[in-house]
Write a structure and sequence with these properties.
CATH class of the largest domain: Mainly Alpha
Strand order of the largest sheet: 1-2-3
CATH architecture of the largest domain: Orthogonal Bundle
CATH topology of the largest domain: hpI Integrase, Chain A
Helix content: 40-55%
Structural class: mainly alpha
Distance between the termini: 83 Å
Length: about 375
């Protein structure tokens, strides 16, 4: 445990010596004995509770710590990591960068979140910035730099629930007819295959098993750091997508007329033969087609994936089949996003419960006098 010793020093004669959890001896000097005793009591309590942290580590600045934290995120998708870098550069380091970790407090975090909202930054972006700072401080606690996370529990701005669009079969047809050739095949692939944009843009000839009406989804492409980054899918899992016969035939024609014979050739490319960029495609082709098809402005490419889910559910697909078709990480994700589309069985269950009671009563000996029944219309009791 800690102990106090008197030193022959004019400045700070009282020194507290203690041993850190690592076994290394630490000490701190004080000018007054009362301060030394207070520090000794606090340090002993923290050591017993396992909450002690090295005060020298907490002197690291947020800017320094952000670089170390970001290196732990090398496993993330390029798009996600680029987003973290942007949040650090624009919203976190300018506000906190020069401060030591130990000087960040809960009130300061609350004020920072409020300031971000006051600038007109979207609720989604504010939440993301707070999430990054929270992750940094959480790691600092785990690494022994801090004893508590000052961000944990801080206010989180409410994020408006975005409207999810589901197209009908007819609307999908109108979109496919309106869009510039040969991208009608891409529209059908997104709407009936349920692929994410990045998965469709990274689809290759060798992954199209049209004899068995299957697409092998193995990789994805995203925009990050000013370029396109190919990698695994969002969930890092491969999956097989069964496609309807009409889409198989359309893809067969598309592969024969629009795609190079190279097995690694991309199925969907720009007019120059380059990989598709979501931003360019949306601006140059998609928005014009939405207007031409007479669909609601603001329709997103991703809404075709939602449309696939709604079409599957309308045809009676089981939630797990929807999950596997769309490549969700769990059934929970599927139900959270599309659970309201599944037909409710509550009325049928209530009827079934009533029928079960009726069958049970019919099997019992008939009583000499029936139960009393309330006539709700007349608000009086009558006897059967």
């Amino acid at each position: 445990m800690a102990h106090i010793e008197k030193r022959h020093s004019r400045g700070k004669p009282w020194r507290v010596r203690y041993r850190a959890p690592s076994g290394r001896e630490r000490s701190r000097s004080f000018a007054r004995k009362a301060d030394a005793e207070k520090f000794k009591s606090t340090t002993e309590a923290d050591l017993v509770r396992g909450e002690w942290h090295d005060p020298r580590l907490a002197r690291a600045t947020v800017a320094e710590w952000s670089e170390r934290w970001l290196r732990t995120k090398a496993h993330l998708k390029p798009y996600t990591r680029a987003g973290y870098e942007s949040l650090l550069r624009v919203h976190i380091v300018p506000r906190w960068g020069d401060l030591e970790l130990r000087h960040i407090d809960r009130l300061g975090v609350e004020e920072w979140v409020a300031d971000l909202q006051a600038t007109g930054l979207s609720a989604s972006r504010v939440r993301q910035a707070r999430q990054v700072l929270n992750s940094m401080m959480k790691l600092a606690v785990g690494a022994g730099y801090l004893s508590v996370n000052p961000v944990e529990g801080a206010s989180i701005p409410r994020q408006p629930q975005g409207e999810t669009r589901f197209l009908s079969v007819g609307e999908v047809e109108r979109m496919a007819e309106a869009i510039r050739p040969p991208y009608e095949v891409l529209v059908y692939t997104l709407a009936y295959g349920g692929l994410r944009w990045g998965e469709a843009a990274a689809l290759r000839r060798q992954r199209c098993d049209l004899l068995r009406s299957r697409l092998e989804v193995t990789e994805s492409v995203s925009e990050a750091w000013g370029g396109l980054q190919f990698g695994t899918t969002k969930t890092h899992r491969r999956r097989t997508v069964m496609i309807p016969g009409f889409l198989r035939d359309l893809l067969a024609t598309h592969l024969a007329t629009e795609v190079a014979d190279d097995p690694a050739a991309l199925v969907f490319t720009s007019s120059e033969g380059d990989p598709l960029r979501n931003s360019n495609f949306r601006r140059r082709i998609w928005n014009e087609a939405v207007t031409e098809a007479g669909l609601e402005p603001g329709l997103r490419i991703h809404d075709l994936r939602h449309t696939c889910a709604s079409l599957l559910i309308a045809e009676g697909a089981h939630p797990r089949a929807v999950m596997e078709h769309l490549g969700h990480s769990s059934i929970t994700v599927t139900m959270d996003r599309y659970g309201h589309l599944f037909p409710s069985d509550m009325e049928a269950l209530a009827e079934a419960l009533g029928a079960a009671r009726g069958r049970a009563l019919a099997a019992l000996p008939r009583p000499s006098r029936g139960p009393r029944v309330v006539d709700l219309r007349a608000d009086r009791q009558i006897s059967q």
